[in-house]
User: Which sequence fits this backbone?
């Protein structure tokens, strides 16, 4: 019954985690609004409303906010899910690709949150749940800009949580390990340009590919999102995935052990 009264906005609800969580919420009786850069491509297939939003376009963010609140009176939960992945070795990734990664994953998410915050503050309640990543807590090779963009989100929302407490707005991060979605295909891969990296690049590319190929179904992420949506007083951080607690523990207390195990896996990859 409580779910029927809640309106949830899920950005990037055309694919992967966003599509699954929006569908599940709709099934459970929530009023769901999703977003996509190309809603017309998906609308007919989806049971929930899909509005146009491009996080890389300031006009799109402003028009989206206006359109959204012309259609709803109250927004209970914002799920900042939209994002993508830039793959490649740090030195070989053109700065422009790194900038674009931040433009979407960090700045786009922040701009959208700012656009909606006046409404949330006015209604004096709400929840902002952002898809970080375990890579927002841990660094790995071949994903430096992605990891940096997710680390930046962690820091930003950690601060924002204190500031929004007075307005009864809860701020939460969900930090999944690798799960099977379209993130591998929808992202960008930087081209190798520096011969000195040839051997390492070959191994780390195989390591990344095997991580994608062996990634599990994202059901645990969806379950965690549903839990944080329902919870009255959620924590700040929700890492999700088998081995996430061990990875965090190792990198926190035994960094050299963590580093050694990653390098060992990369070097063994073909
Ligand atoms: N899958 C994983 O292993 C994993 C792990 C940790 C964190 N995450 C995070 O989970 C979130 C969802 O990723 P996913 O794995 O479900 O990937 P996905 O299947 O590729 O879906 C990404 C979604 O983001 C939207 N999107 C991408 N760029 C956008 C932009 N510029 N403006 C607006 N929307 C945009 C896409 O919508 P349109 O193309 O329709 O616009 C799509 O619906 C991301 O933030 C990702 O970083 C994923």
Assistant:
């Amino acid at each position: 019954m409580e779910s029927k009264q809640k309106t949830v906005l899920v950005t990037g609800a055309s694919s992967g985690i966003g599509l699954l969580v929006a569908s599940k919420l709709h099934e459970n009786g929530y009023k769901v609004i999703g977003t996509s850069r190309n809603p017309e491509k998906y609308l007919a297939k989806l049971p929930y409303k899909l509005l146009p939003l491009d996080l890389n376009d300031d006009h799109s963010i402003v028009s989206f906010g206006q359109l959204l609140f012309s259609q709803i009176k109250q927004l209970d939960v914002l799920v900042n899910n939209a994002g993508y992945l830039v793959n490649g070795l740090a030195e070989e990734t053109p700065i422009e690709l790194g900038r674009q990664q931040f433009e979407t994953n960090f700045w786009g998410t922040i701009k959208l949150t700012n656009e909606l915050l006046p409404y949330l503050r006015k209604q004096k309640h709400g929840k902002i749940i952002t898809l970080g990543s375990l890579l927002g807590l841990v660094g790995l090779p071949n994903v430096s800009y992605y990891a940096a963009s997710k680390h930046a989100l962690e820091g930003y929302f950690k601060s924002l949580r204190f500031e929004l407490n007075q307005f009864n707005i809860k701020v939460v991060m969900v930090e999944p390990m690798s799960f099977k979605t379209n993130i591998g295909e929808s992202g960008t891969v930087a081209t190798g340009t520096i011969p000195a990296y040839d051997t390492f690049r070959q191994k780390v590319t195989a390591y990344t590919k095997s991580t994608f190929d062996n990634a599990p179904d994202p059901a645990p992420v969806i379950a965690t999102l549903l839990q944080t949506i329902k919870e009255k007083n959620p924590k700040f951080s929700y890492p999700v995935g088998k081995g996430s607690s061990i990875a965090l523990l190792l990198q926190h207390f035994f960094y050299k052990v963590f580093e050694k195990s990653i390098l060992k896996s990369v070097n063994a990859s073909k």
Observations:
- Strands lie at 7-10, 31-36, 49-52, 77-80, 86-87, 126-131, 169-176, 188-189, 237-240.
- The pocket of NAP is lined by residues 11-12, 14-18, 36-38, 53-56, 81-84, 104, 108, 131, 133, 176, 178-179, 181-183, 186, 215 (CB under 6 Å).
- Residues 2-196+216-244 form a domain with the Rossmann fold fold (CATH 3.40.50.720).
